[in-house]
Amino acid sequence: MNEHSKTFLTTLREQARQSGGSKRIEAQHKRGKLTARERLLELLDPNSFNEIDGMVSNSDVPISDNPSLGDSVITGFGQIDGRTIFVYAQNFSVFGGSLSQIAAKKICKIMDLSIQNGSPCIGLIDSGGARIQEGIKSLAGYGDIFLRNVRSSGVIPQLSLILGPAAGGATYSPALTDFIFMTQDISQMYITGPKVVQAVTGEISSLEELGGTSVHSSKSGVAHFSSNTESDCFKKVRKLLSFLPANNMEEPPQQLFPQDFSVLTDVDYQLEQIIPDNPSEPYDMNEILQRILDNRDFFEIHSDFATNILVGFGRINGSTVGIVAQQPMSLAGVIDIDASVKAARFIRFCDSFNIPIITFADVPGFLPGVEQEHSGIIRHGAKLIFAYAEATVPKICVITRKAYGGAYIVMSSKGLSGDMNFAWPHSEIAVMGAEGAVDIIYSREISNSDDPGQKRSELISNYQNELMNPYIAAKQGFIDEVIYPYETRIKISNSLAMLKNKRDQSPPKKHGNIPL
């Protein structure tokens, strides 16, 4: 290779690295944001990024004079913890990261490679939306990307990192992916900007109020993770991937911890002390999860949204499990619309990627009220039923305190093909709470008695003893075993080992019709 060729290639590579120019790169830093290339280098393992299409251009300017080589997106592949990852990062320094036809083709090439090679695909989003100058060509590019998002769904994990604006139609590619990460102060997602909102509705709102990180993490439920900094965001991405397989044909990676947290002989008698004697008193379900999972590590997802239900990943004996659990500290752990959707989506992800689902149920029922009924609690609650019934991965349920009514059925019961169902000795399984049941069934008997208060108390006690204890459900085969709390980890471990080779095929069909 002659010196001229070497010099020319070196110059072009430097041009691509400085794409957009130093002033725009400096402007990006002044906004408190890393550049697209800096983000990729921090997210991926050191020296592992390989760029693809770095010299692609959307301009007629000669390549040697083009200040925007690569156009508005950087694409390629690298590694995270030694595993191959395909990535694209929108470059706000070039045309505001707007999507051009050529940028869309670059993204589609990466998405095609990721699905062909069975590796996760991560998009770093920082874009003003479609490139207006290109009109239909830009819009068509979004359609090409959306199609690949849908084709990749359930085949490879897809992650979206919102590290700037994601406006208009650009929000829908992230919305089609499995997990969305947002970062405080720099992330926005919105269909229409504040000016349009004001013009149409008369409401005035800032970008943050309209579609900032806190809004989508806690109110809309669009974002699964919220971070204070980009670096923190990248750490969460890396940790999430550590739980996931590369594709739907693989098993999740094993990660063993020190022996004192991973052997089957582990027992934790502190589990006996967590649930209060008063059945109406709340407790933190996180305390139970952390005492059962390896290394006391529960990686929660959607932590700020629908806080009455917990979902996330952990490990049992080094193997990934998905956790769905009521949180009695929030709304007493009732199931409402948001909790139904949150849990159903997570269950379907786990089922797609061969991750066993462990459910911890302490549920007094569905949230009553006109607002819930009018907003569709029946339709949304049905999503949770559908997700559990559809899932063919191992499903284990532990009832820790109460499981009432339809909510009992929903939470991975035998009726929804739950594989192993356990209950703690003090748990209650019934159509409804004893007080309400007695008031309905025995109202006349109570009112006609000499001492209605005493009679009611006796009837409640009898109802609890005769109809609500877990041994009645175990007698009928709806509970496989009543266990001591300290046995929970061992029972789950043994059940997972037994279910390791589970095969459960659904009847032939194109797909089910989940009540969306």
Structural description of this entry:
This protein has 516 residues and is an alpha/beta fold. The protein folds into 3 domains: 3-243, 2-enoyl-CoA Hydratase, Chain A, domain 1; 259-427 and 470-498, 2-enoyl-CoA Hydratase, Chain A, domain 1, CATH 3.90.226; 433-468, no CATH class. It contains 21 helices and 16 strands. The chain has helices at residues 3-17, 22-30, 36-43, 101-117, 136-152, 172-176, 194-201, 207-211, 213-218, 230-243, 271-274, 285-292, 337-352, 370-375, 377-390, 405-410, 434-441, 443-447, 452-468, 470-475, 488-498, and strands at residues 50-52, 73-80, 83-90, 121-127, 158-167, 179-183, 188-190, 225-227, 299-301, 309-316, 319-326, 357-363, 395-404, 420-423, 428-430, 481-482. Strands 1, 2, 3, 4, 5, 6, 7 and 8 form an 8-stranded mixed beta sheet that branches. Strands 9, 10, 11, 12, 13, 14, 15 and 16 form an 8-stranded mixed beta sheet that branches. A hairpin with a 7-residue loop joins strand 9 and strand 10. It is elongated. The termini are far apart. Residues 260-264 have low confidence and may be disordered.
